[in-house]
Design a protein that fits this description.
With 129 residues, the chain is α+β, with helices and mostly antiparallel strands. The protein has six helices and three strands, in the order βαααααββα. Helices cover 55% and strands 13% of the residues. The protein has a three-stranded antiparallel β-sheet with strand order 1-2-3.
Length: 129
């Protein structure tokens, strides 16, 4: 059975967040289960799943701190490592992704983003009235 509760939900993901999540997934979070890392960092398994997702997620600093503490690393070392690995990708940019089913996303085209933003504005204006 497919979970349609998030179908067509739109996610705005900054490239820096995606780079951090990719780095954590590739270097630290790959061999063990999500539950293992969640227990080790004292956080929800859902957060680990979001970090490992294809699009990454807007990871709060407090979550990064929990993860680095659990790995006996510092935040500054983590950020330096991410910058070293993804120097050309670390920019203040973002992309929109549409969730088509649970944990499956597609990058939205510029036109789709414009339509999405226009609809959001219309909905916001409608609520004001």
């Amino acid at each position: 059975m497919t979970d349609n509760t998030n179908k067509n939900k739109v996610h705005k993901v900054f490239t820096i967040d995606k780079c951090i999540c990719n780095y954590l997934s590739e270097v630290y979070l790959h061999p063990e289960s999500n539950r293992y890392y969640a227990d080790k960092a004292n956080m929800s398994e859902t957060i680990i799943r979001k970090i490992k997702s294809d699009i990454g997620y807007r990871i709060p600093l407090s979550t990064l701190k929990k993860i680095t503490d659990s790995l006996d690393k510092t935040l500054s070392i983590l950020i330096k490592d991410v910058e070293d690995k993804y120097a050309k990708d670390v920019k203040h940019e973002y992309n929109y992704y549409k969730e088509i089913s649970k944990d499956k996303f597609i990058k939205m085209s510029r036109k789709e983003v414009e339509i999405y933003k226009a609809k959001k504005r219309e909905d916001k204006n409608r609520k004001k009235k």
